[in-house]
């Protein structure tokens, strides 16, 4: 399985920077997890191939690229983009984004060949098929109802938290997997933002360390995502100081073969 978190900002030389504002994780250039920067940062190959988008939740940094992607793809789609989301997420998208005021209601529009968006609803905890992948939704602990995902291609599996504070079921699922090749977790704020991280349901390096104690027997790397760009250097150095076994800061744009 090929796993990649797309970059969402550029550096002084115009190249992808390590500052991650938005989340889109790509599996096999074919299935996107969240659409934070999907339209803006995906490659031509990914633009041609991605027809399934899994949503962890509806916060803007996870969906900002969805309306733009639909707009970009509108004329060339042979079939709808399938957005896999819970009923609640669909209602929020239709009410707050695709409401003609923020952006067109694509669910009411058609190109020459038919619909351009199809909502495929799942419930928290469901296991379902998306393209060549088996996906399990794992409810996590965030400000809005949010899900993590366990994604398997039959040979290997990757688990991704999305945004979460302290949670249990996610780690329970990780412990039960024999073919887990990577755990992708968030650590949004530095340790000194203990209160803010609690109020906004995010993790800090110390909280992530405590979370990983729920999965002590892990044999795969732990990749950190969703570090708030403003605090990136502090979070990275605090994580380094903790020397957590197998922990790496994900490199945006890099393709991980797992
Ligand atoms: Zn969020």
The main pleated sheet reads as: 7 strands, mixed
Gyration radius from CA atoms, angstroms = 18 Å
Lateral arrangement of strands in the main beta sheet:
8-5-4-3-2-1-16
The general outline is: globular
N-to-C CA distance: 5 Å
Kindly identify the CATH topology of the largest domain. Metallo-beta-lactamase, Chain A
Structural class: alpha/beta
Distinct ligands, ions and cofactors found in the model: zinc ion
**The number of domains:** 2
Order of helices and strands: EEEHHEHHEHEEEEEEEHEHHEHEE
The CATH superfamily name of the largest domain is Ribonuclease Z/Hydroxyacylglutathione hydrolase-like
Number of helices in the DSSP assignment: 9
Mean pLDDT: 97
What are the low-pLDDT stretches, counting only 5+ consecutive residues below 50?
A: none
What is the CATH architecture descriptor of the largest domain? Answer: 4-Layer Sandwich
Task: Give a summary of the structure in a few sentences.
The protein has 258 residues and is an alpha/beta fold.
